[in-house]
Specification:
By secondary structure, the chain is an alpha+beta fold. It has helices at about 25-30, 45-50, 135-140, 155-170, 235, 260-265, 295-300, 315-320; strands spanning about 1-10, 50-60, 70, 75-85, 90-95, 100, 105-110, 120, 125-130, 185-190, 210-220, 225-230, 235-245, 245-250, 275-290, 300-310, 330, 335-340, 350. The protein is built from 8 helices and 19 strands.
């Protein structure tokens, strides 16, 4: 990274932002819901949406299903009913998503069945480990005492954070190019430094690598007053990809997963990630964006690229900063690039190569 016209007030070290992963509660069941849902539910919302709540296990549906490792439809063998009247001993289910493995007992929050009487399992919060039984029973006894913001497990809280982050990423696809009212602006251009890394395809520019796209991000203060800005490349810098009427935003530098103990803390952006950017000052990052991070980048052919800088994290009081940081989003002007066929098994991380 190059800093021009910027003052740091702490040791210049970049903290890693946590990649919030959905931790398996029943390992095999969690794998059946690897995709990110549209919403994460608090305990109160789980209770509100569930028609019945039972303790049951996934079983194979008769001899014809013998030997299958996972099921898209089958039976839940009910051992205890926590909510519901007239619940039969076996419930027929259908999975909308990856199939369910045969498993040990779990607490199932099930929405009303369809006209065919089949319960649909379409969310990772349909099943919980039986260790949560006492909390669920207490909540069922007096739902009015359940806090609206309480999640049944920490993993649900992390899932909610991931859902919010995905929603924010979609919003970044709509940020218009231009300068912020305070004078902050972003420019992004291709760099020719990947000639040796990704190779060149005939007729393609040297900086459209097979594995990475080499880019220079320049964040400039074109306004008349000093701004305090976050300069975490993992937290703040994004690449927007447009092709064939579709748009997607990916991180310019992929998040680095931390151990579970650190993941409990959420975002680890700290005071060390902020700099004072004087009028006319610039922050320059040479970043290699991995093409495998986006389906729109993996495909060969023409694409339109632009950069986005965004900070929406903790402020002065939370991080003990000398002043409030700049918050918002700015986008660079787009440019066109021709992408060659990517190499199979490309590396997994982008880097700041300055």
């Amino acid at each position: 990274m190059a800093i021009q016209g910027a003052k740091t007030f702490a040791v210049p070290a970049t903290a890693r932002r946590v990649a919030c992963a959905l931790v398996p509660v029943l390992g095999s069941l969690a794998s059946a819901h690897a995709g990110l849902p549209d919403k994460a539910y608090t305990l109160k919302e789980l209770l509100d949406r569930a028609a019945i709540i039972v303790i049951a296990r996934v079983v194979e549906d008769g001899p014809a299903a013998g030997g299958k490792a996972a099921l898209r439809e089958g039976l839940l063998a009910v051992s205890h009913v926590m909510r519901g009247e007239g619940v039969p001993e076996e419930l027929r289910f259908r999975v909308e998503g990856p199939p369910l493995p045969v498993s040990a007992s779990a607490i199932w929050f099930l929405t009303p069945p369809g006209p065919d009487g089949i319960y649909v399992i379409d969310h990772p919060q349909c099943a919980y480990d039986v260790s949560h039984r006492a909390v669920v029973e207490k909540a069922l006894k007096d739902p009015s005492r359940v806090s609206p913001g309480y999640y049944l497990r920490r993993e649900d809280e992390l899932l909610a954070a991931r859902v919010r982050a995905a929603r924010e990423m979609r919003a970044l696809a709509t940020v218009a190019a231009g300068r912020s009212p305070e004078g902050l602006e972003l420019s992004v251009r291709l760099r020719p430094s990947l000639r040796a890394r990704g190779g060149e395809a005939p007729g393609q520019p040297a900086d459209a690598g097979k594995d990475f796209i080499a880019l220079e991000f320049v964040l400039k203060n074109a306004g008349g007053r000093e701004l305090l800005v976050c300069d975490s490349t993992e937290e703040c810098y994004f690449l927007r990809v447009e092709r064939e009427g579709r748009a997607e935003v990916v991180r310019a530098v992929e998040e680095t997963p931390l151990p579970p103990a650190a993941a409990e803390l959420g975002s680890l952006v700290s005071v060390h990630d902020f700099v004072h950017l004087e009028p006319g000052g610039r922050l320059v990052h040479n970043l290699d964006v991995r093409r495998g991070s986006s389906p729109l980048l993996r495909a060969a052919g023409g694409a339109r690229l632009s950069g986005v800088y965004r900070y929406a994290g903790p402020g002065r009081e939370d991080l003990r900063l000398p002043s409030e940081p700049w918050r918002g989003a700015v986008a660079s002007s787009p440019f066109d690039v021709a992408l060659p066929e990517p190499e199979p098994g490309s590396p997994s991380k982008g880097k700041d190569t300055q």
